[in-house]
Amino acid sequence: SLKAGWQLPYTSSIGEVYTLSFGLQVDGYLVTRPNVSQSSELTGRLFPQAALEWRFPFVREDGNWREFIEPVAALVVAPNGGNPGKIPNEDSQNFEFDDTNLFSLNRFPGLDRVDGGQRVVYGLKGGIYNNTGGSATAFLGQSFRFREDDTFANDSGLEKNLSDFVGRVQFSPVKYVDLLYRSRLGQTNLDAKRNEVDLALGPPALRLNLDYGFFKQTGTTTEFDDREEIFLSLSSRVTEFWSVAVRHRRDLTADGGALQSGASLTYADECFLFTVDLTRSFTRDRDIEPSDTISFRLVFKYLGQVQTAQQLQPESETE
Question: What is the DSSP string of 118-148?
């Protein structure tokens, strides 16, 4: 796969911000379908996209406070389709529609699926800042596709011409206190399809993170029900270069329980980063048993990284 892009920003005399961008994705596949035959075939795709984004920020200062409001809109143009049946979907199945990918040219996370067709995206940002460091911001947005197709799964939030609403609220009243709320609301009755709350407390010397997430069942499959989880982590920067962290994830549904626990030790300086991580998984499903994994990650900040993981012997059914 090859991706290329070009972007041209422009600011008008009255403060409007325009961004013109073009993207091109070229993919080549050698596909073997064992269930049909053992023969392989070559296939590919050439997928161009273009977008024009407009923003118009308004800012007002009042003593120690600064307020802003910013409408934003974009027009995205691409060929219809772009996902032939000969190209399998291996890396774009775990799709989540939220405020982070609303304005993306390709809203799929991987390369196997592309976001074709023409659409208009729009939203509104607003916020208030204090000179002492406190802030509160909010965003709400939606998109409209001119052509309805089956690119996105049912209940994904994008299956219809008019998408669901996605938004976020960030609140940082003082230093070392950060609260983030994300949501996806149904475009007809505004029912919550997704709720996420992230809370971070404390300085780097001792920092607590609490993440809560609720996700309604999406797609036509009934294999996964509604999900409700909580994630806790506690990290400490012991010295200038060394830090430690512990974490725990738990399922809050009726038949839930502990999902995963872990601990890590990290060394980081201006040249490289090294992490040792130990993870305990409590998942038990058919052939999957609880297991332990230890991983080592070495990152040379100006060259690249090397990572390896070793799964320890899982528990037997009698243990």
Answer: -EEEEEEEEEEEETTS-EEEEEEEEEEESS-
